[in-house]
Amino acid sequence: MMVPAPIVCEVPGTRNDAINMMVRNKLTGLPVVRSSDGQLVGIVSRRDIFRKFEEDQLSLIMKKEIMTISPDATIEEAAEIFYKKRIHRLPVVEDGKLVGIITPTDLLKIIRDVKTTLTAEDAINTTCVTAYQDEPLTYTIPAMRISDVTALPVLDDHGELVGIITDRDLFDDQVKDADALKALGISDEGNLAGYRNVLPLFYAATDRYLQDDRKVKDFMVIEPMTIFKKTSLQEVAKLMLNHDFGQIPVHGTKDELVGMIYDVDVLKALLK
Hints:
CATH architecture of the largest domain: Roll
Strand content: 15-25%
């Protein structure tokens, strides 16, 4: 199931090296190897970069204590790591060398083809943090960062689900900020898809790009797809793969929001 010879960053290296690599390859995280011998020394995600945006050296930004797995490990072992640790990249290491990488998406493809009695409500594993449609982004973005989530269900005055906002929604396709690109060290200005992967968290790291009058409702996805709490995890996996979703809001019998299910939650279907 692993992706062999994954794209990596090297140390010594810089923040901008990592950002450019993510942008060019439309990724949100990368293993980091030592340039001298290819030894795996860490992993870096877009969130790591923007948590330490003032740091330039990749070695000071990357996570050094990382979970790895061997090529001989079982699918169940990988699923358990993702589910319990709530991580999204699992380097595959043999004799200290990086030989591949596996992600929750790889395992969702297995669940899609396997019948299970487990449902969405069986797998929800986190407290659901919500946003209010009329709250300013100057409040919502720090709340997303503090809660360590990249998506929030959005409620109206009556507590009804009216949208969902993700970090990617915070970027307006019609506006390309050359100064923001330059500050990020992005050399390929034409790579909009990759640009979208990292720019939203640049907004979170620097207040100067936030206008006080912008609200959640200006950026949220209206009437998002939801699933019933009794939906099987097999069906949830299909929906996530078909729509490239990392999370889906879950509703109850009266259409009330009961939580959010994430890709790593769905992997419970593979646990013994």
